[in-house]
Amino acid sequence: MYLTVRNATKTYGTFTALDDVSISIEQGEFVCLLGPSGCGKTTLLRLIAGLTDLDAGEILLENEPLSALPARKRGFGIVFQSYSLFPNMTVAENIGYGLKIRNVPAGDIAARVRELLDLIKLPHLADNFPGQLSGGQQQRIALARAIAVDPRVLLLDEPLSALDAKVRADLRSEIRQLQRSLGIPTLMVTHDQEEALALADKIICMNHGTVVQAGSPEELYHKPATRFVADFMGISNLIDTGTIRDVQPDLLTHRPEGADDAYIACIRPEQIALTPAEDGPATVRTIGFLGNLRRIELDSPFGPLVVETHGAIDCREGQSVQLTITPEACTWVANDTAEGAV
Amino acid sequence: MTGAAQPARAASTRQGIDSDKLLTLVCVGLPLIGLLLFFLYPMAIVFLRSLTTADGSYGLGNYAEVLGSTGFWRATRHSLLMGGATTVLSVVLGFVIAHGLYRCAFRGKWLIRAVIVLPLLAPSLVQALGLIFLLGRNGLLNRFFGLEIDIYGFWGLLIANTLYALPQAVMIIGAALVLLDARTYEAAEVMGASPARQFRDLTLPAARFGILNAAFVTFTITITDFGNAAVIGGDYSVLATEIYSQVIGLRNFNMGAVVGIMLLLPTVLSYYIERQAMKRQQGQQATNAQPFVPQFTALRDLPMAALCLAICAMIVAVIGIVVYASFVRLWPYNLSLTPRHYDITLAGGYSSLWITIVISLMAAAGGTLAVFLLGIGLRRLPKALMQPIQLLAAMPAAVPGMVLGLAYILTFNSTATPLYLLYGTAALIAIVNFYHYHTQSFLTVMTGFRQLPPALEEAAGSLGAGMGRIAVNIIAPFVAPMLVSVFFFLFMRSMVTLSAVVFLTTPHLSVAAVTIMRLDDAGLTSQAAAFSTCVMAVVCIALLGMKAVLAYLSRRSARGRAD
Amino acid sequence: MKSWISKLTTSLLALGAATAASAGSITVYTALEEEEIAGYIAAAEASMPDLDINVLRLSTGKLGARILAEADNPQADVIWGWAVTAMMDPRILGMLEPYKAKGVDVLADSFRDPDDRWFAPIGYMGAFCVNTARLEQKGLPMPKSWKDLEDPAFKGEVLMPDPNSSGTGYLHVNAVLQNMGEEAGWAQLEAVDPNMAQYTSSGSKPCKAARVGEYTVGISLAFTAMSSIEEGYPLAMVFPEGGVGYELEASGLMASSGNKDDAKKFLDWTMSDEAIALYGQYKALITVPGVKASAASEKAGLPSDISTVLAKVDFAKSAQNQIAVKQTWKDKLGR
């Protein structure tokens, strides 16, 4: 383990922001902290950065406790959602600031700044002030500023949230490339599951100040542990045990033992196959065209269902269809309180 | 990291924590020690005096006597009424001017900006003479229109107090209005909100911080001001005149101390109300607010420009007439021009001007540094510690200058402590000037700090910058405009303030304001006006310096903000 | 340019530390007028070249507040030319050391302390400042006495200092009371009250307001009246019939002085022939027998024998009754 957080707890008055949280990051790994706002993910990031003090628990970097180190001694890089460039410094001064603090000779700083500006493809902006730049440019520079000092860990606090869709997608892939090529262990906070799925080696899904599930993007998507994760990680059809038993009992094959309301079936929209059939049990309510796929909403014996198919499909609204769901497609997830997923 | 490097790192770590904690301690500690030594300690001595009865024993006898006198209650009523009226008038007019400056589009704003600070740099004698020459029974207005308006009393005092409070109200409200994000207005515009609605629903609520702070400062300086009340208040007795008659007329400092302590109550109360009202507005400033650039709208801008100009014309008239009178042979009977009043030989002549400049620079530099450090330190303190310090820092305005000056004698003329070494020095005069105007300086800098996004400091911290570096590289450039304002505010006030300083001058050490008073005492009012004109000229030069520095800074930040 | 630099240098030196009283230098607190201070000090330093005299000038009231505030560690060596009514405050008397200055014997008993803590070779007097231009414009008769000011035609045209804030105010009130007797005196003050536009906190302000034509009559000080007349203001100085209030300007030695030898030398000088000759140049009221008042004061309308216009004032009584009179005034006439 490169960076480990053990049993971290943080309260603000009566509000528990983090409740006994443990996570870890491997050398070179890209980890996303995913969760709805207020789930404690930003608090966790700030604890790791040293910007907030821990109430209980510990943070270890290569087995050395960090708790006693102030933010400035941790040697981490951080990028905030609000660009947070120093308005009184030029782009080059911003990027070189961390090196200047480390008393790097001016010539070396200049070289490093040039190198980084090339890396983020903004070599012409060195002498501009932050206010003259677009949001995307500012965030690239913030990123360059954070990695200029070869941080031991890179911390990204919703770095893409303030950007528009196109810039966001571009920067997302740039961050990914940069992180891969530099191999800096990175922890990113986000509430956007798509972003997390696209970037992360590992996703840590949080809710109500606790870690709900941690694992690879595939694991979290296909094998969500709880109803909350299933719901938060994209669209899922959640069906209770009783309905499954009534409609298609063979889906109960992989169900763990437990009371009826302890587990709930989660079936991803693309895991359901549709066949037009006059006597099919389900009826197509609406068909949404999303470019590369179609999203179809059905009324079925399971209740309302969402199905996604690639390519054209031969059915119309109001048509009856046959459903095919294999037991493997059905993941049984713990039925944690549903309101957290809203 | 290699294993061998670890112990060294751990050691430097411990040291590192200490250095930042130490810096916080220094940042809060030094200004706090200043506040304790130069404000709280003298005020504690005043408090002790207020408890000392005529026979030398301690008790509440003085309070009982003051509370039992009809004069006190009348003066209290008058003070509260005058404080309230001045506050309303100054805040309304201050808002009009600040709104005109920052939310309207018309030409000649530089003129308004320049004129509005004039009452701050004018010695109190100038404002008093100006109002009498202009509005007095034998003033220009009455003579020209053949009127018999008598301004002595409530209305004259209201005008004089408002003139003095207005620049401070504009300063504080302006700082709040200039911050509003243009995008919220664009959003409101698109949603179909009329300009009036936008004003009511966006501008007013957003400016609440500034309005409340301005109201607090205005109210406090009004109820503690003696100069205006003595000159133009006529028989309208206020608490500050009560103190004067107790301390100067009856030579009973203990009774004056009682009234001085009582004056703290409404101020603490109004500060508390202000804080309560502020609680709900703790919103953080976005790092990338879009500055509002007003477009010309005749219906809004022409009346606003006219109103602003009218207020400025009044200020110019009051001060200009005194400058003019200083060149007149015998106001108002012989209006031929002469430079003879500028030949000043009595009361030390012009010699005090130079030492006053030095003292004012000391007060301004030391004071600006102190409130800056305090601002930095307070950001790093827990709320429970921060709030009492904030209250303490906001309180000095509630102490009338005369009480502060006498308290300084009682405190620093005692050989019991090494502080005695300060007595009779220019340093002590600089110190009393700073603490006299601590409230305004502190609140202005705090307004600046409110705009500083915490992410900037955190980003710098994560890059490895210690607190000292953050203060110098990040915070200071950000709040620089406020620091410059505070510097020149302190400079201007130190150049002309009399009330506290008059008790601390020595035969070797006289300041300009005291020279003006001595000339006026000697009956040489025209020479006093001439000397005042010289002081104002000096301060104006300093003011131009400020404009240049500010222009330079805003050009830099404009480069940084243009999007 | 050079003088600027030297001034700045002296200023900077003053920043560092308070100049401690040292041999050859004394600190003198005074409420005398600027012009006379300049004249006296020039002469005194000429005749005592080894002595450096540092003068702090404040108005009577402010000086009192300062001396009392400094009581724990007095800074002055000498109090020079300060209202005797203020000097007689027991707290001030307690700070003084008896010293019989050379030549003080010539003064009548009423002009010096029986215990030699103070002596007063000079004094100042009150006066009505009447703006003749405004008087004419309003068609008012020249007031000759307090009684004349009762005339309703003077309504809102008269100013006087508040005795609770101003020594000059007390000077006038006390004179009226001692001259006419308590009862008749209060009745007189109450009769004038309806015409009184303001009671001011400063003693010279009524005259300054009258001279620029804000009001017609300012009950104030003869010194202010005379200097205003000299300046050219359309002002007449009137001493009310029945006697005008006056005040002695007393001097004394501070018991705490660290340089009593020089302090005494200075006090001796204030009774020297040279000093007395200067009094004749500046003062209207000189208690040294046989010394004529200044030519300027004669020009301004002061009679050659001023005793004819002075009220009969018992200063011990004035000081004693002070608090009671001020309180009564507050009750009867306070606004």
Notes on the structure:
The complex is a heterotrimer of chains A (342), B (563) and C (335). Chain A is an alpha+beta fold. Chain A has two domains: 3-222, Rossmann fold, CATH 3.40.50.300; 235-341, OB fold (Dihydrolipoamide Acetyltransferase, E2P). Chain A is built from ten helices and 18 strands. In chain A, the strands form four sheets. In chain A, strands 6-7-8-3-9-10 form a six-stranded mixed β-sheet, with helices on both faces. In chain A, β14 and β15 (293-300) form a beta hairpin. Chain A is globular. The model of chain A is unreliable at 338-342 (pLDDT under 50). Chain B has a single domain (25-295, 302-561), classed as MetI-like (MetI-like fold, Orthogonal Bundle). Chain B has 24 helices and two strands. In chain B, strands 1-2 form a two-stranded antiparallel sheet. In chain B, β1 and β2 (334-337) form a beta hairpin. The longest helix of chain B is centred in the first third of the chain and has 47 residues, at 5-51. In chain B, 53% of the residues are buried. The model of chain B is unreliable at 1-16 and 283-287 (pLDDT under 50). With 335 residues, chain C is of the alpha/beta class. Chain C folds into two domains: 23-123 and 246-302, Periplasmic binding protein-like II (D-Maltodextrin-Binding Protein, domain 2), CATH 3.40.190.10; 125-244 and 308-333, Periplasmic binding protein-like II (D-Maltodextrin-Binding Protein, domain 2), CATH 3.40.190. Chain C contains 14 helices and eleven strands. Chain C has helices at residues 2-16, 34-47, 60-69, 84-87, 90-93, 132-138, 167-180, 182-192, 205-211, 222-231, 260-270, 273-282, 295-299, 315-333, and strands spanning 25-30, 52-57, 78-83, 96-97, 119-131, 158-161, 196-200, 217-221, 235-238, 246-254, 285-286. In chain C, strands 1, 2, 3, 4, 5, 6, 7, 8, 9, 10 and 11 form an eleven-stranded mixed β-sheet that branches. In chain C, β1 (25-30), α2 (34-47) and β2 (52-57) form a beta-alpha-beta unit. In chain C, α7 (167-180) crosses α8 (182-192). The longest helix of chain C has 19 residues, at 315-333. Classes of the chains: A alpha+beta (342), B mainly alpha (563), C alpha/beta (335). The interface between B and C is large, with 63 and 73 residues. Chain A: Keywords: ATP-binding, Nucleotide-binding, Transport. Chain A: Residues 3-233 form the ABC transporter domain. Chain A: InterPro entries: AAA+_ATPase (IPR003593), ABC_SmlMolc_Importer (IPR050093), ABC_transporter-like_ATP-bd (IPR003439), ABC_transporter-like_CS (IPR017871), Mo/tungstate-bd_C_term_dom (IPR008995), P-loop_NTPase (IPR027417), Transp-assoc_OB_typ2 (IPR013611). Chain A: One of its GO terms (cellular component) is ATP-binding cassette (ABC) transporter complex. Chain A: GO terms for molecular function: ATP binding; ATP hydrolysis activity; transmembrane transporter activity. Chain B: It comes from Thalassovita mangrovi.
